[in-house]
């Protein structure tokens, strides 16, 4: 598939390869065992409920649209699935011996793009699966973000924002994949350049059920705290490297400008934890005490 064809957009791309059978489109039957899954399939998660419903529908009404396959480049008499992953899995559960297909010759590039397009059109890809698919086009075929955007019918900014999700720490990616966090939460966490602190915020957001707006506020507080530490006069900080390391750890944990003062022969001192308003006090108190102030007061 040439890139000028890719650039024609989503509708044209689907029209090239996924239009309903006509007199010019030869539908044939192949043994189910001769078809292997798409090796470039971007979708990894399939709803058990959706599959069960599709199995029932195909059992009752038959297969309304043939599968799209291509000859397997490395194995004679084998075919790789191009489009119709859910239908193929359902047919396997029904123990069919053969299945109607349309066979088309196509490149690896077309195989990946069509798999992406089919899933995107049906809104079946999770955000990370979509991002991985875009990255695969960039890595395998040296496509630019603009070319990827044209190929799948998206704005370049949309593709760029999806690709940014791949920069999230693994723990946050797992929460996003498990639908514990939304895309909005993930975008807010991307603004925290400290991976450890971002992961802490993500876990807290899940545990406390924070809204996207709250995560944005917390992320902003973390950035402000880090900026304050960079601009703080040297005289306001301890010269003891151990004290400074502990101070840094508390600032990261509480997302505010914590100071440790004191020392001397008896080792006495003070930990100062500032807060900006009543809401910020509640946040800091909960982090320190492990419970909301209202819970403690009864």
Automatic annotation (TrEMBL):
Positions of the ParB-like N-terminal domain: 28-120
InterPro entries recorded: Chromosome_partition/occlusion, HTH_ParB/Spo0J, ParB/RepB/Spo0J, ParB/Sulfiredoxin_sf, ParB_dimer_C, ParB_N
DNA-binding in keyword set: yes
SUPFAM superfamilies per record: KorB DNA-binding domain-like, ParB/Sulfiredoxin
Alphabetic keyword roster: Chromosome partition, DNA-binding
UniProt keyword annotation of Nucleotide-binding present: no
Organism superkingdom: Bacteria
UniProt-listed CDD domains: SPO0J_N
Residues of the signal peptide: none
Family designation: Belongs to the ParB family.
PANTHER family listed in its UniProt record: CHROMOSOME-PARTITIONING PROTEIN PARB-RELATED
Protein name: ParB/RepB/Spo0J family partition protein
């Amino acid at each position: 598939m040439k890139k000028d064809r890719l650039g024609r957009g989503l509708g044209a791309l689907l029209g090239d390869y996924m239009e309903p059978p006509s007199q010019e489109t030869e539908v044939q039957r192949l043994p189910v065992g001769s078809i292997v899954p798409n090796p470039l399939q971007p979708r990894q998660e399939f709803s058990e409920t959706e599959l069960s419903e599709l199995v029932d529908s195909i059992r009752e009404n038959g297969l309304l649209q043939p599968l799209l396959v291509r000859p397997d480049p490395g194995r004679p008499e084998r075919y790789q699935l191009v489009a119709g992953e859910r239908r193929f899995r359902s047919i396997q559960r029904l123990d069919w011996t053969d299945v109607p297909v349309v066979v088309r010759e196509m490149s690896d590039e077309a195989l990946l793009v069509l798999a992406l397009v089919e899933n995107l059109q049906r809104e079946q890809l999770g955000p990370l699966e979509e991002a991985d698919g875009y990255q695969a086009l960039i890595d395998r075929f040296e496509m630019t973000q603009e070319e990827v955007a044209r190929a799948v019918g998206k704005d370049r900014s949309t593709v760029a924002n999806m690709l940014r999700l791949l920069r999230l720490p693994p723990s946050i990616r797992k929460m996003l994949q498990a639908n514990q966090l939304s895309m909005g939460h993930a975008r807010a966490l991307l603004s925290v350049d400290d991976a450890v602190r971002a992961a802490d915020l993500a876990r807290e957001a899940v545990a406390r059920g924070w809204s996207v707006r709250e995560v944005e506020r917390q992320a902003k507080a973390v950035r402000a705290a880090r900026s304050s530490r960079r601009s703080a006069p040297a005289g306001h900080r301890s010269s003891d490297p151990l004290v400074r390391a502990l101070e840094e750890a508390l600032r990261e944990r509480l997302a505010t400008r914590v100071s440790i003062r004191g020392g001397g022969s008896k080792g006495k001192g003070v930990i100062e934890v500032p807060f900006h308003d009543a809401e910020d006090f509640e946040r800091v108190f909960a982090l320190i005490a492990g419970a909301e102030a209202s819970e403690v007061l009864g």
